[in-house]
Amino acid sequence: MNSNVNNFVINIATANGTGSQSSNLIILHTMFEMGIPVSGKNLFPSNISGLPTWFIIRASEAGYQAPGDKTDIQIIMNKDTWAKDVAALESGTIIIYNEDVKLPIEREDCLAFGMPMTKMARKINPKMAKLMANMYYVGGLAHILGINVDDVIKAVESQFKGKEKAIEMNMQAINEGIAFAAENWNIETEFKAESRTKNPDTFLIEGNEATALGSVYGGINMLSWYPITPSSSVAEGIIKWLPELRTAKDGGITCAVIQAEDELAAAGMVLGAGWAGGRGMTCTSGPGISLMSEFIGLSYFAEVPGVIWDVNRVGPSTGLPTRTQQGDLSMLYEASHGDTQHIVLIPGTVDECFEFGWRAFDYAEKYQTMIFGFSDLDLGMNRWPTEGFVYPETKMDRGKLIRNQKELDAVPNYGRYRDVDGDGIPYRTLPGSGIDPILYRGTGHDEDGIYSEDPIVYQKTMERLKRKIDGSRDDLPAPILREEERKELGIIFYGSMENTIKEIDDILESKGLSVSTCRVRALPYHSEVESFISRHNQNIVLEMNRDGQLFGILRKELPTSLLGKLHSVAYSDGMPPRARLYSEKIVNVLEEM
Questions:
Q1: 172 & 110 share domain
Q2: By the 8 A CB rule, do 223 and 278 touch?
Q3: Which of 161, 177, 498, 580 is most buried when burial is the number of CB atoms within 10 A of its CB?
């Protein structure tokens, strides 16, 4: 069998705002619908148009979804990065380029194939030539990889659904690209795309849209948001699906949507909704969390439920707004001033983005606190396969909610902040229930919610809050374990690293290392994480940040007897994790032990 059938990496270099995203998604969806395991990474700039953008498509029979270690086929359309893109290629790379850019390809050790893409596009539609030129590399690529044009047609019809003229023009460009390549490119390439059996229920979806759907299913009543990359499409997804999924009998939408004037206002609205008994949520990224910190502390101390989704981008400061990282974990876990600790849900797949989307509201009301969903740009803004989402049979968990006087009378010695059950969670009432007074305090308070500066009262309140959050550990999503019989090396990781870990595992196994993995899915970490660490001789905490943030949290909370088993591999450059790079760093740490 040819090892390069359905095993190759395509890098497409274009300029932002030139319409290349449509062409790139057509390539991605064509191969996906052919049943080829494929992934796409969109590396786009933090402006509206003009700056360089790259789209990396990887086909992998083994199902690897990392970007890949080398480029096999390079498509070059952008003159601004032309020389750099060409120079970076390894010997033997296939290059497809737009001849109309009129820049040289000075690589005799590569296979270069040009096509006058812009000139050909002008003959179809002069006004749309800049956009349609991209469709010619779709045709050239289809010829090189042996993709049947009928498979391409399906993707084009899906991309331009309902726009018959656009479908017709773009298919003409693609067919002309195929014909030009067949006539002018004398090439016999080892890279081929062959159809495989595909589960008809499988489709591609972005993590942010999956989160949006989960939030809608979870009963969101109020969405407040302030736009920020890469979280905005969570809000946009909710707004898109509300008319279809959340309409009342009278035709109205059963969720308020407010674009706030800033992140502080958005967080304040979430608290207002929670205080009133609604399910409020906002979505943001690291800079927004920084601004929301005071309201986050109010939620923690006053015990008001709410949900905030942080789709992580690269910091600090403005950082790299359109690149990915896991640099916000420590901030979320202890957000706001004073002693705080928060529940953080960490999805690693689009299925979990959906699941944690609805679970976040249940946890918020059960534990009467702010719940963080922690995703990142790679998971949130790229498309991933799913076989469909699982809808639970259980009803919403509203927690210890007293709705009327009869329910109040059933609670012995009720006080708004009194722990009558020993789990640290008090009962709460809502405005409009006929129960007075309704007390929520962000200042010092006793068990009845009455203002207090008594040192002992404050100390007991803070201990109860710690007991409440700590008690959530084994109620939160348990880690995903993949364990080998030999307990030599454990790798602990979280989030979108899930989409690279299989390849990392295979690389390490090829070096003779017996590897088990533990994917942490929530903080405070589940007790099984500690058990996993204790069962292995050595454990690597693998993460996409500079400082080893999960490693630091584990070192602070684990028994001291386990700390010698724990080591950090933390690396961040804004790119989705490449398997070989992280594998080499793991090997280096092991060699230094």
A1: yes
A2: no
A3: 177
> What is the rounded distance in angstroms from the CA atom of residue 12 to the CA atom of residue 98?
12
* Structural domain contains residue 564: yes
404 half-sphere exposure, CB direction, 13 A CA radius:
1
CATH of the domain at 240: 3.40.50.970
d(CA 391, CA 10): 36
Helix (H, G, I), strand (E, B) or coil at 359: helix
Query: Are residues 492 and 527 both part of a single domain?
Result: yes
Share of the chain above pLDDT 90, in %: 91
Domain ranges, residue 224: 205-386
> Tokens at residue 108, please?
């005799």
Q: What is the CA angle 397-403-407, rounded to 5?
A: 100
How many domains would you assign to the chain? 4
Tokens found for residue 366:
């059960």
Residue 200 lies in a domain: no
| Helix-helix angle 149-159:129-145, to 10 degrees | 150
Per-residue model confidence as pLDDT tens digits over 537-583: 999 999 999 999 999 999 999 999 999 999 999 999 999 999 999 99
Domain at 499, CATH number: 3.40.50.920
Amino acid, single-letter form, for residue 22: S
CATH number at residue 138: 3.40.920.10
Residue 50 covered by a domain: yes
CA distance 56 to 195: 20
Lowest-pLDDT choice from 38-52, 135-149, 476-490: 38-52
User: 483: which 2 tokens?
Assistant: 């364990």
Question: Is the pLDDT at 248 greater than 90, yes or no?
Answer: no
Query: What are residue 100's DSSP bridge partners?
Result: none
Q: What is the pLDDT of residues 414-444, one digit of tens each?
A: 999 999 999 999 999 999 888 877 889 999 9
Same-domain status, 427 and 526: no
Position 10 pLDDT exceeds 90: yes
> Tokens at residue 124, please?
């179809």
**Do 500 and 463 have their domain in common?**
no
Enumerate residues 6+ apart whose C-beta is below 8 A from 520: 346, 479, 492, 493, 494, 526, 529, 550
Could you give the 3-state DSSP secondary structure of residue 203?
Answer: strand
Give the Cα separation of 153 and 490 in Å (integer): 46
Half-sphere exposure for 50 (CA within 13 Å, toward CB): 2
Q: For residues 145 and 277, state if they share a domain.
A: no
Residue 449 located in a structural domain: yes
- Return the HEC string of 333-349: HCCCCCCCCCEEECCCC
> Concatenated DSSP letters for 28-86?
HHHHHHTT--EEEEEE--SSSSSSEEEEEEEEETT---S--SS-SEEEE--GGGHHHHH
| Region label for 464, one of left (φ > 0), alpha (ψ between -120 and 50) or beta (otherwise) | alpha
What is the pLDDT, as a whole number, of residue 117? 97
CA distance 233 to 230: 7
| Pair (487, 564) in one structural domain | yes
**Which pLDDT tens digit goes with each residue over 322-368?**
999 999 999 999 999 999 999 999 999 999 999 999 999 999 999 99
Beta bridge partners of 96: 75, 113
The last residue of one of the domains, among 386, 414, 439, is 386
